[in-house]
């Protein structure tokens, strides 16, 4: 046959495939019409008789002659697929060769499953590859299917399973999951489910104090339906495919298995509650527990064992067949007289059994006191419901127990598993106290809960199963039980022989047996529900971890994960695509280098003051608009692809970070939730979900839809728009504050940059000596950390090696000149080296900068302090010859002092305001001596520890140690004795009378102090100045939550707040204390600032009392930042929220902000997760080309406050309220102007003519029997009579006051309390005397 004239006979009639439908299972009518292959042909004379012909091996060889070479492999693939019954095909020739492709389902009828039994290696694996090739060339449109193709026709390739969903990222799938839709059950069998759903939606939940939002009710109802009737649904591993004849088939994208019938999968009775952060997941769980509190857990299902619900009463004394069979099985066929019921059970016994196995909705415990006979309640409590859990052999068959002889001791008996209505909740240690508060807030006393603390023993299994509705413990406490996972001791044939009280009318034994010391009681209970809060820990792969091992061992009916972050990166944030090219970043950096080297000032003339005003013209400006880096970056056309302009058929490739998230999700589903198909085959999630998504060419068609279907089947999450339609949170303003560093900090930063320059030039930017070499990842991370710390404040007692650098400066320049001549380095690098040596020399020549680096503190500028007093109080940390200093922005002289000394000085002066200069000097000298001796003692202790370790090592080797060299002998040195002597001297000076205690009324008391004019102004940290100014301005009305990833930064802030007298909470590496600090901060008005490490911001803490958030440095990962903000901006917040991020201009911090914003706008990672900061190419380029900072502009924050309390304004907790005549209580009674005590005056006042009425509260523990000193404005008074304690609301008689003092109108006593023990719900009462007085 000629290649140019080919004729095909045996045309396929239009109705041929209908002729033998009932006979041939491989008739085309049984297949799925998938699409058409449209291929160009080379032959010009083809005789096809205008019909469709059957494609087979014989016709393939002839058709291949017409094809171009690139299509011949496709034809060979079609031949293999048709011969192996994966496809059927027909063809038609015109201007193109058109091949209709039909998919043959694996579950094809009347072939006896032959298509499911094909060899994997020889047939299935190559077939999958060929099918993907065919699918990628299919045209799934009716025109091509009908053969209506002309010469100029160019249809768009449309994959059989293609969808716009295939281009979604993991984060986009998560953010667009549909809100839960409740099901309605028609069958009367599900009437209880419908009734419960209606009750929840009507908010008729017994025991719940709180009114839920509608979306919360829907979540609770959906979870209840998922538990009580999970049912089955289409297997989410398959996607529905619609053929060109509108019939639906089901395809698994990973294996390309095609099914005609819908594959079904059993839904798991549990899931992941992953509502948005701050939308009330805790109250949803509590509502679910209360709504189902009357429902008992059911025995674990077994196909062979009926496992009836038993009670001690029913097993031994009820004649029903199920109980007799259970007893006979337990006794292994033996018929003993004592096990036969001696009498018919009474009505009381029947009711007791029914009440335990079918608890009433109201809860029996609430009516315990109404039981007419006391022993009846005791019998009720001991009649615990349980079932017998018999072991199964390796084949899953029950041991043939009744047929074995009773003396056969090799067999294990059944294990008694107690049934319960209780829920076991595991929470992080930091959230334990918060959960207790939430329970007390939302639930009434119908809910019986037990809080198991870390060192507390668990009650017996019977007690936990019967006495409580909720068991709350930390992850840490739960994992402690992993030491007792041996259940072999629970399997026994020994029956309970505990006695029945003779006086009892019901035959319930008072059982005390069953406790096995080697087995945790958690393993003896069939828990109704297990909830893991912050449950993303359930995604940990290593099942060897104690927590996951124990989770796998305990018996649970329903399992729930509660988390706002199912995996690390699912945070509801959407990032775009693409990444900055290295060339673009280089051009940006070059422009910045030229700008900075030319000496141009950063930010131009627009300098913002603390109120955001332009200091040059007074106009309001945005603090984020003045950005040197941002301005330069915006002048370049960044080479990022625009998401909207991308071709619709472009495939997004998933990253290794996505793979990690998928593995975590798979672990949640298979290991914790035990979703049936994934629990039965651990590799299924990887082969059917992960592998198709992580294909080298991009996600396989349909694989993204599979992931979406799986997530929809287990995740309960409302879309943001659905939540916002019901809940309106207060507005949140988020802004970035760009600051210029302090001049001393600029020197530090520039010296650090010079180190990077010298390293780059000296190594020629190649080899392992270069900082950015792949082998130096650890060093690069440390460099970035040091740079970040320098943005706040950083010191080095080695002066960052500037002296060594300058000693070798000539050698550096000489070698660099040679390298420049040889072309090994660029002119740009040579110029940077010269600049690096210049800034190093400037720092090395600055005496003050050198002195500051010798002490690990941020220094404050102190003005108007007498020099002799300064010398005494600065002894030991600055050179004695160092005198006044002045700034480049001002001529006023000042001294530098550390916060610890300032705090001590202020406390001394407040207590003794009339101390003479000599007294202040003597006290300062003593404090300096004490600090010096304390440092020496600490050094001695450190050396003694090293010595002791050395001695222990010698002893371990058999070498004798020297006598007398013990720890005590080393520590108790001369320094220790001098420290004790100095402390005694200091206390004596504090006790000395300066005369102020004898003055009852004295005008302008603090103004008489020799330190009255001393002022504290800006510190050496620009960021600290801004924070202190914000606190000074707003702490009277708002609380602050301040985040930093650096514990050192938070310590600096804490020291400064202590100097100002601001009360704060600060937990360092102590998670147990964190929960108590959160409760104190939330309930006490005295604490105005919470200092928190950034890593704790994602722990589910609730800090809605704060409304102002400050990040001390930019947060690279936006999801981490979002979690931290959600501690404040969540349900329960009633105030507008302000979020400010502090960054230093023209440094890597500003670059981080710009780079991160570009990524968020669609110019970066598509996975929703940014790379590590040190791994980002743009960031590495920025670090590789350092920028030296010029002398900064005048600071935008001019911090200024007096050392002593202001006379012209009253101060509470360090916050000044000018023109307000509120009272300030003297610190000797518990009220210092610094706010060092937990009390504040009332902010309300009532004008009565010319008299202002004020109220002040005095803590009971600070009240003296003889006097209560007060101060107001310029008056210092003493109340001579103790105010008597009255009940709340009662008014005491006016206290006796000296003549001319204020008139006390009356006093009353009030209580306040905080829950300190969630288990007992006891309260610690705090008594305060309330004094009302009038100021004429």
TrEMBL record:
Protein name per UniProt: SNF2 family N-terminal domain-containing protein
Domain of life of the organism encoding this protein: Eukaryota
Species in which this protein is naturally found: Irpex rosettiformis
């Amino acid at each position: 046959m000629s290649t140019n004239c080919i004729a095909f006979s045996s045309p396929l009639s239009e109705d041929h495939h209908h002729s033998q439908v009932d006979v041939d299972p491989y008739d085309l009518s049984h297949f799925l019409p998938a699409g058409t292959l449209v291929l160009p042909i080379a032959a010009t004379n083809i005789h096809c008789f205008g019909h469709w012909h059957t494609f087979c091996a014989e016709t393939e060889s002839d058709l291949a002659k017409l094809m171009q070479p690139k299509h011949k492999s496709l034809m060979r693939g079609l031949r293999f697929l048709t011969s192996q019954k994966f496809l059927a095909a027909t063809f038609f020739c015109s201007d193109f060769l058109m091949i209709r492709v039909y998919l043959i389902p694996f579950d094809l009828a009347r072939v006896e499953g032959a298509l499911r039994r094909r060899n994997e290696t020889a047939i299935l694996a190559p077939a999958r590859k060929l099918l993907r090739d065919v699918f990628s060339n299919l045209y799934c449109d009716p025109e091509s299917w009908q053969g209506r193709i002309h010469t100029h026709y160019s249809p768009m390739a449309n994959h059989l399973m293609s969808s716009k969903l295939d281009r979604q990222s993991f984060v986009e799938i998560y953010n667009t999951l549909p809100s839960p839709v409740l099901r309605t059950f028609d069958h009367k069998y599900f009437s209880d489910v419908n009734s419960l759903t209606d009750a929840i939606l009507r908010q008729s939940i017994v025991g719940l104090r709180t009114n839920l939002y509608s979306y919360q009710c829907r979540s609770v109802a959906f979870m209840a339906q998922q538990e009580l009737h999970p049912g089955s649904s289409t297997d989410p591993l398959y996607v529905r495919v619609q053929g060109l004849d509108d019939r639906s088939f089901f395809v698994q994208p990973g294996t390309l298995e095609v099914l005609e019938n819908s594959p079904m999968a059993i839904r798991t009775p549990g899931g992941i509650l992953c509502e948005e952060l701050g939308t009330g997941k805790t109250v949803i769980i509590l509502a679910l527990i209360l709504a189902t509190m009357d429902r008992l857990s059911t025995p674990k299902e077994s196909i062979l064992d009926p496992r009836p619900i038993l009670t001690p009463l029913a097993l031994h004394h009820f004649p029903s067949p199920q109980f007799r069979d259970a007893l006979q099985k337990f006794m292994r066929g033996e018929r003993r007289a004592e096990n036969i019921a001696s009498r018919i059970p009474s009505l009381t016994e029947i009711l007791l059994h029914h009440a335990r196995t079918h608890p009433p909705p109201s809860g029996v415990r609430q009516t315990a006191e109404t039981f007419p006979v006391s022993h009846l309640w005791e019998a009720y409590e001991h009649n615990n419901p349980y079932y017998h859990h018999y072991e199964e052999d390796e084949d899953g068959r029950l041991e043939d127990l009744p047929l074995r002889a009773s003396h056969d001791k090799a067999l294990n008996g059944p294990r008694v598993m107690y049934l319960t209505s209780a829920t076991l909740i595991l929470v992080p240690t930091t959230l334990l106290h918060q959960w207790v508060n939430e329970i007390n807030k939302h639930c009434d006393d119908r809910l019986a809960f037990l809080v198991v603390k870390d060192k507390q023993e668990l009650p017996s299994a019977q007690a936990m199963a019967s006495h409580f509705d909720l068991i709350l413990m930390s992850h840490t406490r739960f994992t402690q039980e992993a030491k007792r996972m041996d259940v072999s001791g629970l399997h026994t044939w020994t029956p309970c022989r505990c006695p029945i009280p003779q006086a009892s009318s019901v035959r319930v034994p008072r059982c005390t047996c069953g406790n096995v010391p080697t087995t945790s009681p958690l393993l003896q209970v069939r828990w109704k529900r297990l909830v893991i809060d912050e449950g993303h820990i359930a995604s940990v792969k290593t099942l060897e971890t104690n927590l996951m091992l124990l989770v796998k061992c305990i018996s649970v009916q329903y399992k729930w994960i509660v988390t706002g972050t199912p995996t690390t990166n699912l945070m509801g944030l959407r990032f775009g695509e693409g990444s900055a090219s290295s060339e673009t970043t280089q051009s940006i950096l070059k422009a910045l280098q030229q700008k900075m080297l030319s000496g141009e000032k950063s930010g131009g003339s627009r300098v913002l003051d603390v109120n955001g005003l332009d200091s040059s013209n007074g106009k309001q400006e945005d603090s984020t608009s003045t950005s040197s880096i941002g301005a330069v970056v915006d002048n370049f056309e960044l080479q990022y692809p625009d998401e909207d302009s991308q071709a619709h058929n472009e495939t997004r490739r998933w990253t290794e970070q996505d793979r990690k998230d998928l593995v975590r999700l798979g672990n949640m589903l298979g290991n914790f939730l035990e979703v049936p198909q994934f629990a039965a085959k651990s590799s299924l999630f990887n082969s059917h979900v992960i592998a198709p998504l992580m294909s080298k060419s991009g996600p396989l068609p349909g694989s993204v839809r599979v992931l979406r279907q799986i997530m929809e089947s287990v995740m309960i999450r409302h879309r943001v728009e659905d939540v916002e339609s019901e809940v309106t949170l207060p507005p949140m303003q988020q802004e970035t504050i760009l600051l210029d560093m302090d001049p001393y900090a600029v020197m530090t930063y520039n010296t650090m940059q010079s180190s990077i320059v010298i390293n780059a030039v000296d190594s020629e930017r190649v080899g392992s000596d270069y900082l950015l070499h792949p082998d130096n990842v650890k060093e690069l991370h440390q460099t970035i950390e040091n740079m970040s710390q320098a943005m706040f404040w950083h010191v080095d007692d080695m002066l960052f090696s500037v002296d060594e650098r300058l000693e070798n400066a000539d050698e550096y320049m000489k070698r660099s000149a040679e390298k420049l001549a040889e072309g090994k380095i660029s002119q740009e690098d040579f110029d940077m080296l010269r600049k690096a040596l210049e800034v190093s020399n400037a720092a090395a020549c600055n005496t003050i900068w050198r002195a500051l680096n010798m002490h690990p503190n941020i220094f404050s500028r102190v003005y108007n302090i007498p020099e002799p007093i300064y010398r005494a109080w600065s002894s030991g940390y600055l050179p004695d010859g160092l005198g006044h200093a002045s700034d480049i922005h001002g001529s006023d002289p000042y001294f530098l002092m550390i916060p610890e000394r300032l705090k001590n000085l202020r406390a001394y002066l407040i207590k003794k305001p009339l101390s003479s200069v000599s007294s202040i000097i003597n006290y300062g000298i003593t404090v300096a001596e004490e600090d010096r001796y304390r440092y020496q003692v600490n050094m001695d202790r450190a050396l003694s520890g090293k010595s002791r370790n050395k001695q222990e090592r010698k002893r371990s080797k058999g070498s004798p140690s020297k006598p007398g060299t013990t720890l005590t002998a080393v520590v108790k040195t001369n320094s220790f004795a001098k420290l004790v002597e100095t402390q005694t001297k200091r206390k004596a000076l504090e006790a000395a009378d300066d005369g102020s205690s004898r003055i009852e009324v004295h005008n302008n008391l603090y103004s008489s102090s020799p330190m009255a004019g001393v002022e504290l102004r800006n510190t050496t940290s620009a960021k600290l100045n801004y924070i202190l100014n914000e606190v000074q301005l707003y702490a009277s009305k708002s609380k602050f939550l301040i985040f930093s990833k650096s514990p050192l930064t938070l310590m600096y802030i804490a020291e400064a707040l202590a100097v100002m007298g601001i009360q704060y909470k600060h937990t360092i590496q102590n998670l147990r204390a964190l929960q108590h600090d959160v409760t104190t901060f939330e309930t006490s008005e005295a604490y105005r600032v919470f200092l928190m490490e950034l890593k704790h911001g994602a722990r589910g803490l609730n800090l809605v009392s704060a409304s102002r958030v400050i990040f001390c440095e930019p947060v690279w990962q936006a999801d981490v930042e979002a979690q931290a903000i959600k501690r404040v901006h969540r349900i329960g917040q009633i105030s507008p929220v302000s979020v400010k991020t502090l960054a230093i201009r023209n440094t890597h911090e500003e670059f981080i902000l710009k780079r991160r914003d570009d990524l968020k706008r669609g110019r970066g990672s598509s996975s929703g997760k940014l790379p590590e900061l040190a791994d980002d190419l743009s960031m590495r380029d920025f670090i590789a080309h350092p920028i030296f900072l010029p002398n900064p502009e005048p600071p935008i924050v001019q911090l200024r406050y007096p050392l002593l309390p202001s006379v012209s304004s009253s101060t509470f907790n360090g916050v000044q309220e000018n023109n307000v005549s509120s009272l300030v209580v003297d610190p000797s009674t518990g009220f210092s102007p610094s706010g060092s005590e937990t009390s504040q005056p009332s902010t309300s006042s009532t004008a009565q003519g010319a008299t202002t009425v004020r109220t002040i509260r005095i803590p009971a523990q600070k009240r003296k029997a003889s006097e209560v000193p007060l101060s107001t404005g310029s008056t210092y008074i003493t109340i001579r009579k103790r105010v008597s304690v009255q009940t709340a609301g009662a008014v005491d008689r006016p206290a006796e006051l000296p003549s001319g003092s204020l008139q006390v109108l009356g006093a009353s006593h009030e209580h306040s309390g905080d829950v300190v023990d969630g288990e007992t719900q006891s309260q610690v009462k705090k008594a305060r005397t309330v004094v009302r007085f009038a100021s004429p």
